[in-house]
TrEMBL record:
It holds the Pfam family FGGY_N. This is Ribulokinase. It catalyses: L-ribulose + ATP = L-ribulose 5-phosphate + ADP + H(+). Belongs to the ribulokinase family. It comes from the Bacteria. Residues 299-496 form the Carbohydrate kinase FGGY C-terminal domain. Pathway: Carbohydrate degradation; L-arabinose degradation via L-ribulose; D-xylulose 5-phosphate from L-arabinose (bacterial route): step 2/3. PANTHER family: FGGY CARBOHYDRATE KINASE DOMAIN-CONTAINING PROTEIN, RIBULOKINASE. Its EC number is 2.7.1.16. The gene is araB. Coiled coil: none annotated. Residues 8-206 form the Carbohydrate kinase FGGY N-terminal domain. Keywords: Arabinose catabolism, ATP-binding, Carbohydrate metabolism, Kinase, Nucleotide-binding, Transferase.
Length: 559
């Protein structure tokens, strides 16, 4: 009898707008129950709750109270949905968006609870891009000094990451910076709340906090940015070794972070003392859920944005990648990350702001949603029929240009252009962006042998076929609708000792369908012509000069 057949784990996925819990059988990865809890505050972009203090352009915050509410609501509901007794649950794992990061006291108390009227006291969500000037300074200084860690991030670090956001905190609210004993990823903060033990995981430290070869950037480098920034790495906490500062040791993925406290057991309805897995990032745990943790398998997690992750047994410098981290996806391999800052968000923006009411009426008459209706109209066209090409930079460019102050461009519109034309061109633009990433990896000597898709956009079959045609390669698809939560559950199974490592657990509990979408040769040839135009447009606007000027004019007018 399989000892795991009557044991279960819980995975909790913290997304941008909600948190999801799933109950999973340890023996085979069967998902038996799930529940979603919508964040009360969603994304805080315009004004702080309560005080009404206005936020500037490109700000995006969250509330830690929402994260705790996920534990209180989604986990018990998922257990009830699964009809699994809490006593049969042996572990819990979580994943988070990243870099979503917050200032806290030494005992983990979020500063926004003490200073609710101060914007910098609140957690900065991953898509907070107001630290771009600070990222620019970090990149310029690192390039000037020849910092060895810079090539590990494709030559630029992002405004989304820990150091850029930390420098912004210091320079815009030095009092909150001084009060912050900890600058901690939400991925690690939630584990602290579950276990009562502070840990820092190797994934977020490596990809988002520039931790390479056993250390963070030097105190000398940080002091050159701003003398008061020299002690910043002390805010990044202590590793399990008890060694703090630049040489902190980090918790390995799939490791045991600690055990569920009585307080957290009361929140969740789970047994006190069960295993709690080391924190992780939503994209990176999804690789395990798709059983795609071997070299050459690129997993694209496609939702509001897209994150591309891939394991490799070789180290290379890939221009514009988000990072390469040893043990960053599974222990023993190099983990690569790249991404597109907006994908589903682009389609949502277009439908919310650019489609006439008559289309919504027709969609309602057809009994479908507006996205589905536009997709059906777009799918009826031949490749290139709309005469358009677009740049997918409405949320900036994460890879390969690493510039979040770039903006979207649509070329070729005429008085005959219809909403479905633009909608299709935007879908194609995101596929062209993905092809740019794949080609950049392969040109750097990191082959992509299988392209695996996960995330909410899997539901759009036309979009998936477009990606297969544009990429000129088959697409494999994850066998779960809730990949991050399943991946977190797989990590929980490893932390609970049910499997020896993530690779073994992924093989038993993960699932994917190989070559679910196959490229059509005729459409692929046609897309090659459009892709060539996309690359010309991409390279023309890559320096950002015009787009930066337009953004500056906007910001000045909005001040």
């Amino acid at each position: 009898m399989n000892v795991n057949s009557d044991r279960y784990v819980v995975g909790v996925d913290y997304g941008t707008l909600s948190g999801r819990a799933v109950v999973v059988r340890v023996s085979d990865g069967a998902e038996l129950g799930s529940a979603v809890h919508e964040y009360a505050h969603r994304v805080i972009e315009d004004a702080l709750p309560g005080s009404g203090v206005r936020l500037g352009p490109d700000w995006a915050l969250q509330s830690p109270a929402d994260w705790i509410d996920v534990l209180r609501n989604a986990v018990p509901k998922a257990l009830a949905d699964a009809q699994v007794a809490a006593e049969q649950v042996v572990g819990i794992g979580t994943d988070f968006t990243a870099c979503t990061i917050l200032p806290a006291t030494a005992d983990g108390h979020p500063l926004c609870e003490e200073f609710p009227e101060r914007p910098h006291a609140w957690p900065k969500l991953w898509k907070h891009h107001a630290a771009q000037p600070h990222a620019d300074r970090i990149n310029a200084l690192a390039a000037e000094r020849g910092e060895a860690w810079l090539p590990r991030y494709g030559g630029k670090i992002s405004s989304e990451w820990a150091f850029a956001k930390g420098l912004q905190l210091l320079e815009e609210d030095p009092e909150i910076y001084e009060r912050a004993d900890r600058w901690i990823e939400a991925a690690d903060w939630i584990i602290w709340q579950l276990t009562g033990v502070e840990t820092r995981n190797v994934c977020t430290a490596g990809y988002k906090a520039v931790y390479q070869d056993g250390g963070y950037p030097s105190e000398d480098f940080l002091a050159a940015l701003n003398p008061a920034f020299s002690g910043f790495t002390r805010k990044l906490g202590q590793g399990p070794s008890g060694t703090d500062g630049n040489k902190a040791r980090l918790a390995p993925l799939g490791g045991l972070a600690g055990h569920l406290t009585a307080r957290a057991a009361e929140w969740t309805g789970l047994p006190e003392g069960i295993a709690v897995a080391v924190g992780n990032v939503d994209a990176h745990v999804t690789a395990a859920a798709a059983d795609a943790v071997r070299p050459g398998q690129m997993v694209a997690i496609m939702g509001t944005s897209t994150c591309h992750v891939m394991c490799s047994d070789q180290l290379a410098e890939v221009p514009g990648m988000c990072g390469v981290v040893r043990d960053g996806i599974v222990p023993g391999l190099w983990g690569y990350e790249a991404g597109q800052s907006a994908v589903g968000d682009i389609f949502g923006w277009f439908v919310d702001n650019c489609v006439p009411a008559s289309y919504a009426e027709r969609a309602a008459e057809a009994g479908v949603g507006l996205h589905e209706y536009l997709t059906s109209l777009a799918a009826a066209q031949k490749v290139g029929q709309h005469g358009l090409v677009a740049l997918d930079w409405h949320g900036g460019n994460r890879s390969v240009l690493v510039d979040h102050t770039l903006s979207g461009v649509i070329v070729g519109q005429t008085l005959a252009t219809r909403p479905e034309d633009v909608y299709r061109a935007l879908i194609e633009a995101t596929a062209f962006g993905a092809r740019t990433i794949v080609e950049t990896f392969e040109a750097a000597g990191v082959p992509v042998e299988e392209f695996v898709v996960a995330g909410g956009l899997l539901k759009n079959r036309f979009l998936m076929q477009t990606y297969a045609d544009v990429l000129r390669r088959p697409l494999s698809v994850i066998g779960s609708d809730q990949g991050p939560a399943l991946g977190s559950a797989i990590h929980a199974a490893v932390a609970a000792g049910a499997y020896p490592d993530i690779t073994a657990a992924a093989a038993a509990m993960g699932k994917r369908e190989a070559a679910a979408y196959v490229p059509d040769a005729e459409r692929a040839d046609a897309y090659d012509r459009l892709y060539a135009e996309y690359r010309r447009l991409h390279d023309h606007f890559a320096d950002g000069e015009m787009l930066h000027r337009l953004r500056a004019i906007r910001n000045e007018a909005s001040a």
